Amino acid sequence: MATPAQINANRNNAKKSTGPKTPEGRAAARLNGLKHGLASDILVLEGESESDFENLLDSLEAEHQPATPTEVILVRQMAMASWRLVRLVHMEAGHYRVRRVDLQARFKNLYTHLTEPDRQAIIANLDSSHTLINFSRYEARLERSFHKSLTALQRLRAEPKNEIADRSQSQEIPDSVAAPATAAEAPANKSATPADPAPGQRTPASPSRAKVHAIHATQPLAFSPVFDQHH
């Protein structure tokens, strides 16, 4: 039996414990909380095995190795869809067994030499409540749920690679920005004041003005006739 001194020492040591200190340890602790937050006693019905469900969940986690809370949720959804699919198979088999007992007198009075597939076909034909059709719909829905979670998990794990590629492409400097303009390519400063001409030297005309003078000198002027509006 522990002494009062040992109990106080244990309490003091527990107060000093702050849990995982590294980012990896904190992330693992959070993921463990999410994994164990899935209560098997809620999902597993009477007559089903909790250990079988936990083994299914553990096998999916071992296969996909979820590393984030979102990945844990997706793997958990896959486990729930798989578990319900197994349950649905047992429900369908139980429906056939119950209907076989209900129709036993009909089988005996109306038919002879029936095989078990024959009885199953009669049960399906007499399914006025569409129970078997509903089973088929539930099965398709659960399969879609499983594959939807699996696709989302695969897409989520592919996103970081795409984000890195997009980020690297967005950080590339365009050629027009990367290469600085040289002195020859730099645009002329319109606000710069031209140098004063030397004494006795005429100021040269600008290229644009000289070009305009050349055009007017080589091309005759065209006059449009003016008509008197009064005539």
Care to describe what's here?
There is one protein chain. With 231 residues, the protein is an all-alpha fold. The chain has a domain at 27-158. 66% of the residues lie in helices and 0% in strands. Helix 2 packs parallel to helix 5 (69-102), helix 4 packs across helix 5 and helix 5 (69-102) packs antiparallel against helix 8. The longest helix is centred in the middle third of the chain and has 40 residues, at 131-170. Residues 25-29, 182-186 and 221-231 have low confidence and may be disordered.
Helices and strands in order, then pairings?
Elements (H helix, E strand, L loop, with lengths): L3 H13 L6 H14 L3 H4 L6 H15 L4 H34 L1 H7 L5 H10 L5 H40 L4 H4 L28 H12 L13
Helix pairs in contact: 2-5, 4-5, 5-8
Short description, anyone?
This protein has 231 residues and is mainly α. It has helices at 4-16, 23-36, 40-43, 50-64, 69-102, 104-110, 116-125, 131-170, 175-178, 207-218. Residues 25-29, 182-186 and 221-231 have low confidence and may be disordered.
